[in-house]
Inverse folding.
């Protein structure tokens, strides 16, 4: 039976959290900005017509998803991109998807062939 | 035309794939369970061929697949059927001979038909999340690059 371990809450962020965090365009833009280097909340808020608390909320989601880290630097608390979960999410899913897409395309061809055979009236007499 | 394949993580131990096929589900079920038909499409990665395909299609029955690449390396997997409900549901265990993840995986295929088209939902439930995520190191993939290019593409696509 399926049991949930007690330590589940503390577990490392998984792909679900990564994808949930990536579902928002502002958060993707923040990640794109951080790909260029560390930035403070203030610097991150600048390009967006958003309040600092609103940006902070997005940063919390990204942090929980393990996509960014924030240094305990009293005032600034600069954010930094953690690329590994992202790369895993995109790399893993993409390669996996591609493999199955190619495999299923062969199944398409086979099914077409089976359908064609099904439609052909049997001329042979018993 | 057929639908696009979606691949998603569900919960912390499962992978779910969905794909539509332009054929009735009895046909899709046959293609997924008859060795002479499986051999036609479940070929493995490019460069691999299927050299063994045995299926004992009944609850408790075993199946076994072996692929070989051009260098002669073989890769085998198999398992036991837990549920066989033609043409709609198939549940089986699966384990690779030289598994790169711990434990067994339970695969479930559900086929639903609408207007002569069939939606195939394939879910793979691993023993642990580590095993599910360990599929990352799958030998079936030619190097899943932890690549910043891909990251860029993903971010760019998302911002469009």
């Amino acid at each position: 039976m399926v049991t949930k371990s007690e330590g589940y809450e503390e577990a490392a962020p998984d792909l679900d959290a990564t994808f949930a965090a990536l579902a928002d365009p502002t958060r993707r833009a923040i990640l794109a900005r951080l790909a260029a280097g560390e930035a403070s909340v203030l610097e991150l808020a600048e390009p967006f017509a958003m309040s600092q608390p609103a940006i902070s909320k997005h940063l919390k989601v990204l942090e929980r998803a393990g996509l960014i880290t924030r240094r305990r630097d009293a005032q600034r608390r600069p954010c930094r991109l953690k690329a590994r979960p992202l790369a895993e999410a995109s790399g893993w899913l993409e390669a996996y998807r591609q493999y199955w897409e190619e495999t299923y395309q062969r199944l398409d061809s086979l099914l077409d062939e089976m359908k064609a055979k099904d439609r052909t009236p049997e001329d042979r007499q018993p | 035309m057929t639908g696009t394949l979606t691949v998603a993580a569900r919960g912390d131990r499962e992978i779910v794939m969905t794909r539509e096929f332009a054929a009735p589900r009895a046909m899709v079920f046959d293609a997924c369970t008859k060795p002479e038909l499986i051999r036609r499409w479940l070929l493995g990665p490019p460069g691999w061929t299927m050299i063994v395909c045995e299926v004992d299609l009944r609850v408790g029955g075993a199946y076994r697949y072996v692929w070989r690449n051009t260098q002669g390396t073989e890769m085998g997997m198999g398992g036991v059927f837990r549920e066989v409900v033609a043409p709609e549901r198939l549940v089986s265990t699966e384990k690779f001979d030289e598994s790169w993840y711990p434990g067994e995986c339970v695969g479930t295929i559900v086929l639903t038909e609408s207007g002569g088209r069939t939606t195939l939902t394939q879910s793979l439930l691993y023993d642990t999340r580590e095993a599910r995520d360990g599929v990352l190191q799958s030998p079936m993939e030619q190097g899943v690059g932890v690549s910043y290019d891909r990251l860029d593409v993903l971010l760019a696509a998302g911002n469009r």
